[in-house]
Amino acid sequence: VKHVIEHGANNSKSEYPGGMPAGMASGADVDTLAKYVAGGLKGEKPAAWAACASCHGEDGKGMPSVAPNIAEFTPHFVATVLDN
Predict the structure, then answer these.
(1) CB 1 within 8 A of CB 75
(2) Around Cβ 55, how many Cβ atoms within 10 Å?
(3) For residues 9 and 21, what is the distance between their CA atoms, to the nearest angstrom?
(4) Could you give the CA distance from residue 66 to residue 29 in angstroms, rounded to a whole number?
(5) Looking at residue 44, what is its pLDDT?
(6) Mean pLDDT estimate for the chain
(7) Is pTM beyond 0.85 here?
(8) Neighbouring-strand partners of residue 63
(9) Cα 8 from Cα 81, distance rounded (Å)
(10) Residue-wise pLDDT tens digits, 2-29
(11) What's the pLDDT band for 73 if we cut at 50, 70, 90?
(12) What is the dihedral of CA 57, 66, 10, 76, to 10 degrees?
């Protein structure tokens, strides 16, 4: 999760053509966001979550053709990443 926040990702472009841009957070915010996302979006939302929510939605469930659901990694999303 931390690597994707720092470096971006293009491993789901068939469903999300824009990919995940690099550098959406920096410094301590990267660690805080990575822990929040890896922990299933449980607990208090970090202030930096606003940058993530702009594409993934406030609830993390994504937006069609924009960003995937990061609240849960569905078998479909995992297959998309592997296919790409």
Answers:
(1) no
(2) 17
(3) 7
(4) 22
(5) 94
(6) 94
(7) yes
(8) 67
(9) 13
(10) 999 999 999 999 999 999 999 989 999 9
(11) confident
(12) 80
The phi-psi region of residue 11 (left if phi > 0; otherwise alpha if psi is between -120 and 50; otherwise beta) is: alpha
What span, in angstroms and rounded, lies between the C-alpha atoms of 50 and 24?
10
Q: How far is it, in rounded angstroms, from Cα 69 to Cα 50?
A: 15
Provide the token pair at 62.
Answer: 């994504």
**Residue pair 6/20 in contact by the 8 Å Cβ criterion:** no
Q: Identify residue 11 by its one-letter amino acid code.
A: N
The number of residues making up the chain comes to 84
Q: Which amino acid is at 51?
A: A
For residues 79 and 81, what is the distance between their CA atoms, to the nearest angstrom? 5
Kindly state the tokens that stand for 18: 């824009």
